[in-house]
């Protein structure tokens, strides 16, 4: 079963990290990905995202609008798409993920349709 792990966080906290802290978090995520693969998880995709100000909201009946979809400070900062046996296993992996201060991870099953 496929699940997406959506990393929600406050971009202002991430922006306050030093370059060394950002590099350390990026390496922690690379190691996290390796540990999933070594444990038999099929990692279909993973990436960090650019800041939300680079986002465009597209609707079928209007122009694209710049900016994040959410009004609050929490934005999606990265994603992992994994194939595991159950929601419990996906949750377990989400708990092992490297977290920046204030981050939360949304675990959502992918629609097989």
Automatic annotation (TrEMBL):
Specify the domain of life of the species encoding this protein: Bacteria
Any one Pfam family here would be YCII
SUPFAM superfamilies registered for this protein in UniProt: Dimeric alpha+beta barrel (SSF54909)
Which residue positions does the secretion signal occupy?
A: none
The residues covered by the YCII-related domain are 1-109
Q: Which Gene3D superfamilies match?
A: Dimeric alpha+beta barrel
Family, according to the entry, reads as follows: Belongs to the YciI family.
Its name, as the record gives it, is YciI family protein
Tell me the organism's taxonomic lineage.
Bacteria, Bacillati, Actinomycetota, Actinomycetes, Streptosporangiales
């Amino acid at each position: 079963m496929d699940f997406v792990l959506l990393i929600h966080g406050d971009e202002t906290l991430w922006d306050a990290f030093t370059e060394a802290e950002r590099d350390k978090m990026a390496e922690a995520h690379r190691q996290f990905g390796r540990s999933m693969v070594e444990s038999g998880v099929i990692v279909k995709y993973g990436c960090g995202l650019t800041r939300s100000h680079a986002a465009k909201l597209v609707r079928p009946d209007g122009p694209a609008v710049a900016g994040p979809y959410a009004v609050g400070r929490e934005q999606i900062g990265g994603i992992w798409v994994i194939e595991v046996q159950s929601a419990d296993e996906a949750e377990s992996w989400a708990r092992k993920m490297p977290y920046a201060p204030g981050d939360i991870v949304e675990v959502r099953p992918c629609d097989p349709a």
